[in-house]
Amino acid sequence: MAFEGLAERLQGTFDKIKSRGVVTEADVKEMMREVRLALLEADVNFKVVKKFVNDVKERATGQEVMKSLTPGQQVIKVVNEELTNLMGKEQSKIAVSSKSPTVVMMVGLQGAGKTTTTAKLAQFLRKKNNRKPLMAAADVYRPAAIKQLETLGTELSMPVFSMGDQVSPVEIATRSVEQAKEDHQDYVLIDTAGRLHLDETLMDELVNIKEAVNPDEILLVVDAMTGQDAVNVAESFNEQLGITGVVLTKLDGDTRGGAAISVKAVTDKPIKFAGTGEKIDALEVFHPERMASRILGMGDVLSLIEKAEFSVDEEKAKEMERKMRTADLTFDDFLEQLEQVRGMGPLDELLNMIPGAGKMKGLKNAQVDESQIGRVEAIVRSMTKKEKSEPAIINASRKRRIAKGSGTTIQDVNRLLKQFEDMKKMMKQMSSMSKGKKKGKGNM
Ligand code: GDP
């Protein structure tokens, strides 16, 4: 789970100060000593840590906090704001050129996830921004990269421009932009060549491509799991090539979080997207304030709702919403819903976005257990049609029959019935939150 260790340590530190009515300078100092250690342990760049700790200390011991009625909470608010600032204050959007196509160069070392991210981004632009992207296969060095992009293009029914691996990347890039113009595609995402290590040949080649196609955006793809190495790579690419933004991949496997916190502060280039899994829709817009909340264990309900909106089939979602509003959600819907939630990503990652859920003991190490899901399915399939649509009629003798039919116990059946009710409640809440958010749209 992303930031697991850091979130846990910071929350532990904050719990001590949260409800204090009086906070002294010594308290703040003590707290910041722990925060400092937690950040260093999370592999955050030491210069970044130093500045952060000083900034927070200065604000937290200032009048606005000390004189407030809830100084404990104010201190945490200051930490949250400074952490947000560190990661870039506001969300930084992908460039849109005034003349079509917008040219995006994807750069990065081999294995960082460049090709995968190119396809994820193309899918994102089409689904979220209603764009028509062309992907260009200019990674002529990694043996399978071109084929990989072509396969992804076929899967997504999205065009891929390629000229094989015997043509220079500069030529491929240039021709891909011409092709996009001809075909009225409004974005070109150029998957450039990576290398195992940073070297001069790679940089020269990227500079040549940059000069040839004059990109509107140069996105550097780095692997969050490599921590400070990712930050160093970003610094070098920025110095030698000049990048406009960063995509942080494999955040799903990054338990420390150092790269996410340091990249912007070190390079002054924003993180624009985060990769959170191997699937094509596992790409999130990077929101510094939401990420800060997640790290501090305050949850991230907005991202959770967006994830649902992105992964769930729109028609089905509408139908489901109608059913939920009218409260005629059935057990068949429940099964379907279960499948869709599984499609949204690992359960532990989703739980991390729910405020406070990370701290709930029972949920902390929750994992989707496939056999458990199989059991749920069996129970639902042992219900009669009437029971599925009217679970209220399921009395003791019916429970016994269902348990027997599905090879489970009465406790299993009871548990499922309760989960079903809980889920109905949660979905109702989510749909009303989602509606509230839509009303205030425009800043997303
Ligand atoms: P490239 O050499 O930079 O083009 O790297 P690839 O796109 O081939 O990705 C390398 C590996 O990382 C592949 O196995 C991808 O599935 C995986 N990968 C890419 N992005 C993510 C991510 O956000 N999360 C996880 N868990 N894996 C990822």
UniProtKB/TrEMBL annotation:
Top-rank lineage group of the source organism: Bacteria
Main location: cytoplasm
PROSITE patterns in UniProt: SRP54
Reactions catalysed, as given in the entry: GTP + H2O = GDP + phosphate + H(+)
Gene label: ffh
Keyword Nucleotide-binding: yes
Binding site for GTP: 108-115, 191-195, 249-252
Subcellular location: Cytoplasm
Start and end residues of each stretch annotated as Disordered: 429-444
Top-tier EC class: hydrolase
One GO BP annotation of this record: SRP-dependent cotranslational protein targeting to membrane
Pfam family, one: SRP_SPB
Species of provenance: Sinobaca qinghaiensis
Domain notes per entry: Composed of three domains: the N-terminal N domain, which is responsible for interactions with the ribosome, the central G domain, which binds GTP, and the C-terminal M domain, which binds the RNA and the signal sequence of the RNC.
E.C. numbers: 3.6.5.4
Binding partners and assembly: Part of the signal recognition particle protein translocation system, which is composed of SRP and FtsY.
Domain SRP54-type proteins GTP-binding: 270-283
GO MF annotation: an example: 7S RNA binding
Record-level GO cellular component terms: signal recognition particle
Family to which the UniProt record says this protein belongs: Belongs to the GTP-binding SRP family. SRP54 subfamily.
Alphabetized CDD domains for the sequence: SRP_G (cd18539)
Keywords: Cytoplasm, GTP-binding, Hydrolase, Nucleotide-binding, Ribonucleoprotein, RNA-binding, Signal recognition particle
Protein name, UniProt field: Signal recognition particle protein
UniProt xrefs under InterPro entries: AAA+_ATPase, P-loop_NTPase, Signal_recog_part_SRP54_M_sf, Signal_recog_particl_SRP54_hlx, Signal_recog_particle_SRP54_M, SRP, SRP54, SRP54_GTPase_dom
